[in-house]
Amino acid sequence: MPNLFITSTGTEIGKTLVTAALCHQLRRQGETVTALKPIISGVDQNTMAESDTGVIAKALGLPLTEEVINQISPFRYKAPLAPTMAAEKEGKTLDYDAVIARCQQAMKAEGFTLIEGVGGSFVPLTDDKLVADWIKDLGLKSILVAGSYLGTMSHIIATLEAMQARGLDVIGIVISESPEGDIFANPDLEKTAWEIEKLTKLPVSTIPRISDEDAWREVPPLLQLLKI
Questions:
Q1: Best CATH choice for the domain 3-212 from the list 3.40.1380.10, 3.30.420.40, 3.40.50.300, 3.40.50.150
Q2: Percent of the chain clearing pLDDT 90 (strictly above)
Q3: What is the Cα–Cα distance from 58 to 38, expressed in whole angstroms?
């Protein structure tokens, strides 16, 4: 399974933590890894080092040069909005065909290619394309990332069933523990995972809250989801 899409039930859930952790764990195992977050919003030059793009670059062991930034995230917008809205604020329209072409080019690289989506699986990219269309047009299997907050089980099942109805193959689920300050946070991470595994019949991994700056280094093993 050399190519994989990292998607989620919503935004600020933990996709980049999972992407970076997989980069780190695969590289530590001796694998060659290419990772992209082709579309990113809510970022500019002043925030690039702390952005998802910066995190992925660090997990890949790459310096955060302009070349690396363009390699990982070629489609960037300043407003923290869905791509359709973020692009519109800059008088632009996301070139969907260019996104697909860039991903397909990366998928030809040696070793593993990880492609991280933007927002949840059904966020609009253009007037007629959603993240789910992006996954399907690339023909990739997915890992679905979710939080542990109250209500996540409904969000996971709804997202999973909608993806499966489109013929998308989700191979596993990662539940990233929601912040303690969230009034809807569910403290029983493992119980939530057990329930989701029972309901979806898919393998489920969990990530507890990690306070380290480079949290991706401390994520529990995820490679079992890739079946390698």
A1: 3.40.50.300
A2: 78
A3: 16
- 15-41 pLDDT per residue, tens: 999 999 999 999 999 999 999 999 999
Instruction: Enter the pTM of the model.
Output: 0.94
Strand partners, 76: 40
- Rounded to whole angstroms, what are the CA distances from 176 to 6, 17, 18, 49, 187? 13, 9, 9, 22, 12
Q: What is the pLDDT of residues 121-175, one digit of tens each?
A: 999 999 999 999 999 999 999 999 999 988 899 999 999 999 999 999 999 999 9
Is 227 one of the catalytic residues?
no
**Alpha carbon distance 100, 96 (integer Å):** 6
Select which of 15, 37, 58, 129 is catalytic: 37
Q: What does the domain layout of the chain look like in residue ranges?
A: 3-212
Q: DSSP H helical segments within the chain, as ranges?
A: 15-28, 52-59, 66-72, 83-89, 96-106, 131-138, 152-165, 189-200
